Amino acid sequence: MELHQRTAHELGDLLANKELSSAELTASVLARVAEVEEQVSSYITLTPELAMEQARAVDQARADGKELGPLAGIPMGIKDNMSTTGTQTTCASSILKGYKPVYDATVVSRLRDAGGVFIGKTNLDEFAFGSSTENSAFGASKNPWDTERVPGGSSGGSAACVAAGEAVIAVGSDTGGSIRQPASLCGVVGVKPTYGRVSRYGLVAFASSLDQIGPLARDVKDAAIMMNAICGPDEMDNTCLPNSVPDMAADLTGDISGMKIGIVKELTSEGLEAGVEESFNNAVKVFEDAGAVCEVVSLPSVKYSLPVYYLIASSEASSNLSRFDAVRYGVRAEKYENILEMYTNSRGEGFGAETKRRVMLGTYALSAGYYDAYYGKALKVRTLIRRDFDAAFTKYDALISPTSPCVAFKMGEKTEDPLQMYLSDVCTVPANLAGLPAVSLPCGLSEGMPVGLQVIAPALEESRMLKIADAFERRFEGIGVPTVAEGV
Amino acid sequence: MSISRDDVVHVAKLARLGLSEDEIVTFAEQLSAVVGYVDQIAKLDLNDVPPTAHPVELTNVFREDIVKPSLSQAEVLANAPEQEDGAFVVPKIV
Fold it and tell me: pLDDT at residue A487 above 60?
């Protein structure tokens, strides 16, 4: 197997045993980028010089006998909505073209300290608004399994780079499924941690009560290793939880006999593509064969998740994006007569269509006369959704569903109809509204495209969730490698 | 629920968002569809349900009030579209 297809933990062992240097590994990943990036477009900004410098520093530290963690020397992609000192951070928006942060996001500084090798900043839907990565001001990313299809979104670049071998592992952000849905569509593992597990400091805010950073990886163990590196309290983010973090890779034993797993009725009973349904039903059998008890459970309020999500997320986004005033940073319009025109022209020219739609929807939902009917109501239904999950977790250790009702769709198929695009998040938004951890992992192929299985766990139970995901992965034959790998 | 052209113009003004004539027409149509969809929750009777603004109930997160290194003036101004004498430059406001 080529170096660029191997997992971080396998490569980490080779590095630790000095059978491989990080400089060699990084050079091979950069060669792979040169080979396939034109087809896949995973990255907005590539940082090959920084990567080689970081790789050599890790090799030197190892030669000096320093103690290094499992991510030391591993090439990784970072979603371009996380602040990286001195490296352009655009959020895939024209308004931030050329913006170079003067500080690191907490996650970025933790990955630097862990010896991570930064290949580049990955593509996304502008400000993470989208489910296909087509809303990027720098052009769409493509799905490595079929480059005429979308990689999902918004962390489409982070999913595509891991699937295509352009990075060994990546970080993305998930507000309504933006890690899990592209992970599902690209056939990789994606984790949204419990809200507050990972610091949001330096993550350009979309919806502050929903956003979480998490890993996209080749297998569950790699995702657990990345979780270990990025989770934990941070005094720079007051919403970051004070709870200590267990070693999330420690309990991946494969033993889930006796566990009770609930199949979420509202996410499985209608609207699934036949191939997705088939793969999901096979996954249920795998869990049963492993000794788990699977039962259908109804969470009645979950059916309102999408309207609640789009109201809350857009409302928070409209407020968060008011910071783009073209005064302290961002591209300022060339023509304006007064301060008001400077704002409206800079934002009108700098924001893309989907960003404008979200800001408009959020501003509308928060405006006088509509606040109680829309935003206020959405917050109340959010309570009902949380209560449904609380009740289900008194009976079940975890809940499962498909991650996406469909496999990757064709480029352009949903761009003209925003509501159809929004409906593709139906299975992923409930976990964000309830603040719960959730993981997507490959569970089959349909039309030659990956299908994802979602496991949702109670708050702070990431270890249990990853144990269940790993138990499935051990018993599943896998989905092979994407077609972009076959042509070379 | 239908969003009119006037609604779009009003909301765009609140959001300080410059829209072209084409965008105004398109958004009136697309936002009507989205608002029509989210309207299903506006009809629910939820008088006894408290709102959830945040999934984690943390209140009053305190830390010691200690002076720490922060960004320099040059760093703060580094990405400003226009600056002069250590200040951000904006059009005349008053």
Answer: no
- Whether A488 shows a pLDDT value over 50: the answer reads no
Please state, for a pLDDT cut of 70, what percent of chain A lies above it: 99
Residue A367 contacts B, CB cutoff 8 Å: yes
Q: Are B12 and B19 in contact (CB under 8 A)?
A: yes
Over chain A, what is the mean pLDDT?
96
Alpha helices in A234-376, H assignment, sequence order: 274-289, 305-320, 339-350, 353-366
Rounded Cα distance, B41 and A189, in Å: 33
Tell whether the model's pLDDT for residue A288 goes beyond 80.
Answer: yes
Per-residue pLDDT of A123-173, as tens digits, reads 999 999 999 999 999 999 999 999 999 999 999 999 999 999 999 999 999
CATH superfamily of A3-261+395-485: Amidase signature (AS) domain (3.90.1300.10)
CATH 1.10.20 fits B5-42, yes or no: yes
Burial class (CB in 10 A: 0-12, 13-18, 19+), A441: buried
Q: How far apart are CA A298 and CA A276, in angstroms?
A: 20
E strand or H helix that includes residue A236 = none
Tell me the per-residue pLDDT of B27-71, one tens digit each, with 9 for 90 and over.
999 999 999 999 999 889 999 999 998 888 788 888 889 999 999
Kindly state the DSSP code that residue A409 receives in the 8-state scheme: P
Distance of CA A236 to the CA centre of its chain: 22
List the one residue out of A266, A458, A301, A264 whose CA is nearest residue A381. Answer: A301
What whole-number distance in Å separates Cα of residue A99 and Cα of residue A76? Answer: 21
Query: What b-and-e string marks burial along B11-48, b requiring 16 or more CB atoms within 10 Å of the CB?
Result: bbeebbbbbeeebeebbbebbbbbbebbeebbeeeeee
Residue A427 structure tokens:
């299975």
Cβ pair B80:A347 closer than 8 A: no
- Contact list, B83 vs chain A (CB under 8 Å): none
A302-311 pLDDT, tens digit per residue, is 999 999 999 9
Q: Domain coordinates of chain A in residue numbers?
A: 3-261+395-485
The shortest C-alpha distance from A130 to chain B (Å) reads 15
For A383, the closest of B16, B39, B51 (CB atoms) is B51
How many Å apart are CA B13 and CA A343, to the nearest integer?
A: 10
> Strands of A43-46's sheet, edge to edge?
A43-46, A117-122, A75-79, A169-174, A212-217, A189-192, A438-446, A449-456, A398-402, A260-264, A293-297
Q: Chain B partners of A435 at a C-beta cutoff of 8 Å?
A: 55-56
What is the set of active-site residues of A?
79, 154, 178
Q: Note which residues in 10-39 of chain B have CB less than 8 A from chain A.
A: 11-12, 14-20, 23, 27, 30-31, 33-35, 37-39
Whether ipTM > 0.90 holds is yes
Which of the 8 DSSP states describes residue A168? S
